[in-house]
Specification:
5 strands; 5 helices
């Protein structure tokens, strides 16, 4: 496919620092709006939030991922926004999740190694992305085995 094809499937990953600590109600609202938008536009992915830092993997058509990435870049809730990767993909890592969310307690319980690299520092990009993909893949594998 042409690398500029707006319908090419892509994956975007990023990490950012929140402008302020996000309380539970703010996180629920954010998740609710993002989940509905993703469902309506064929985006899938996983979002992590811990100690004032976000990390996310987004998947979908190039045009939709780039559109939402533009909105994220302008979102007042983010500062120190850092793109980790943007790649064309053949298949989705999270095909069944319009948006899967992991917050502090769940990260501490299910993915404690993530807390050590979810700090927005570029020298942790590779490890952060490896862990995020591992979590997404293991949960998708578990979902498949439940069918």
């Amino acid at each position: 496919m042409n690398s500029e094809d707006p319908n090419q499937l892509v994956e975007l990953s990023y990490v950012s620092k929140a402008t302020q600590d996000m309380g539970l109600s703010s996180l629920i609202r954010l998740f609710d709006v993002a989940h509905k938008w993703n469902q309506g536009h064929g985006l899938t992915g996983v979002l992590f939030y811990e100690s004032g830092h976000f990390a996310q993997i987004l998947e979908g058509k190039r045009k939709d991922v780039l559109f939402i990435w533009g909105k994220i870049q302008k979102d007042y809730r983010h500062k120190v926004l850092h793109q980790i990767e943007f790649d064309e993909i053949d298949q989705r890592l999270c095909p069944n999740w319009a948006l899967r969310f992991y917050g502090g307690d769940q990260i501490a319980k299910d993915v404690p190694q993530l807390a050590g690299v979810l700090d927005g520092l570029p020298n942790h990009d590779d490890e952060l992305l490896r862990i995020m993909r591992s979590v997404a893949k293991s949960n998708q594998d578990q979902k498949e085995s439940e069918r």
